[in-house]
Amino acid sequence: xxxxxxxxxxxxxxxxxxxxxxxxxxxxxxxxxxxxxxxxxxxxxxxxxxxxxxxxxxxxxxxxxxxxxxxxxxxxxxxxxxxxxxxxxxxxxxxxxxxxxxxxxxxxxxxxxxxxxxxxxxxxxxxxxxxxxxxxxxxxxxxxxxxxxxxxxxxxxxxxxxxxxxxxxxxxxxxxxxxxxxxxxxxxxxxxxxxxxxxxxxxxxxxxxxxxxxxxxxxxxxxxxxxxxxxxxxxxxx
Length: 238
Prior knowledge:
The chain is α/β, with parallel strands linked by helices. The termini are far apart. About 40% of the residues are buried. Strands 5-4-3-6-7-8-9 form a seven-stranded mixed β-sheet. Strands 1-2 form a two-stranded antiparallel ribbon. It has seven helices and nine strands, in the order αααββαβαβαββαβββ.
């Protein structure tokens, strides 16, 4: 884990965050709440110190154990597709570096995050605690160790679910944990990359009834594979 940086060190990254926001806007991210959140999250504090100088490049960076901190464009895309409002309850499958969760916190969301790799979870929760994101309620992350493909049943239903690894198919448990639609708002949304090592498509599923869902595709992305009891078949080699 990287230690705390002096205040002056944090300040020098503000311009880099602003340039990253400008780049994401140029690449098509139009949700101003997402862009503002990206502009506030100290991504350099969520990676090892050796990666600080590249923390605001639009690229994935290694975390160890074959995990990565997602590319900012990917995080921004998934955050925008969730279409969440402040106070929403969001399940995150794959805590990873905590970057996606931190962005959602800056959007005023209550995040329930599940990570399967214990050492990574311990490292990330300490970093999130240092940045004052760890806790319960709006603007906070409640993270636990577990199998994210099974969801978090005793905290369901969720306004939205975001999966930060690629599944061969959509886990049924996650579908069932989306909030049902009501007269004044649509059902919960699930944003998940689906495919295998040869290619993955970002999908958004919206719950439209007890056993019915609409599905929308949003382009090709590359993620590490989702691992868990309900993750489906293993990735096939390209």
